[in-house]
Amino acid sequence: MHPLVKKIEKKYLKKNQSQFHIGDTVKVHMKIIEGDKERVQIYSGLVIGKHGAGSAESFTVSRVAFGYANEKVFPTCSPNIMQVEVIRRGKVRKAKLNYIRGKLGKAAKVEGIFTEEASEEVAAEE
Question: What is the mean pLDDT of residues 1-29?
Fold first, then answer.
């Protein structure tokens, strides 16, 4: 990429982006503007793909709500994305999880990664 384009793009990149990967279950906090009111809406689901790089980077989140599979593409550097919170880490071996599209229930599950932090949180809850 041209150095001038990188310099202009750097201004629009977010400083503190969440570190999440494909296969993770995430909560995306979006800013919704309705007339003169602002609110934060949470969209939770499974990250099934990432696309692009730099300020053009985006990710796709898939979820099942009320028996219907929904997908939404979020630009990573959008000012309307407040934060991306990782709920659960997933262990996958593919870059795109297209095979999950249209699956419901147990067929749409991804194997989880259990870390020491997660086990400490579970022990603290008990």
Answer: 85
pLDDT in tens, 70-122: 899 999 888 899 999 999 898 888 888 888 887 777 777 787 776 655 555 54
Q: For the whole model, what pTM was predicted?
A: 0.77
End-to-end CA distance of the chain: 52
Domain 3-125 = CATH 2.40.50.690? no
- What is the C-alpha separation between 9 and 41, in angstroms, rounded? 27
- DSSP 3-state of 65: strand
CA distances from residue 14 to 1, 32, 64, 81 in whole angstroms, order as listed: 19, 19, 29, 10
* Edge-first strand listing for the sheet containing 25-34: 68-75, 58-65, 37-51, 25-34, 81-88
- Report helix, strand and coil shares of the chain as percent, to nearest 5: 20, 40, 35
How many angstroms from the chain centroid is the CA of residue 43? 9
